[in-house]
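Q: Could you fold this chain for me?
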Amino acid sequence: MIKENSKAPDFSLKGSDGKTHSLSEFKGKYLVLYFYPKDNTPGCTTEAKCFNRGMSALKSMNAEIVGVSSDSIDSHNKFSSKYELGFLLLSDPDHKTIKEYGAYGDRGVFGKGTLRKTYIIGKDGTILKIFEKVKPDGHDEEVASFLKTRND
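A: Sure. Below is the predicted structure, expressed as structure tokens.
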């Protein structure tokens, strides 16, 4: 089980930009790594739009936003294009990274799948904060509030 103040697991996932991405490329920045169940569903769309809206504030705090779900790159591209998302979406079709981060489990009536969780990873790759059971609307503001408390 991943905990705050532990080293974030590395990953190697294909992104909506056509490239493969890993944790190490975000070194020196804060990484807002958020896991979500499915592209184009109401809660996930709300969360993505909120992060998009708050992106400039987060970038001004030296933070990058990256969304992860098990959806395909094609699905991510359509989702990103439809809502003009300005951040990277990563595809984890086998749930490997999703499970390593503890963002996979029982979703009640929806069965097992990706849970809505956000991890703030520090500039050195340490998990600074875990947001569990995220409410999509306004989550970007919660993340920004946390980052404002940092002075590292």
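A (continued): The domain at 26-148 is CATH 3.40.30.10 (Glutaredoxin).
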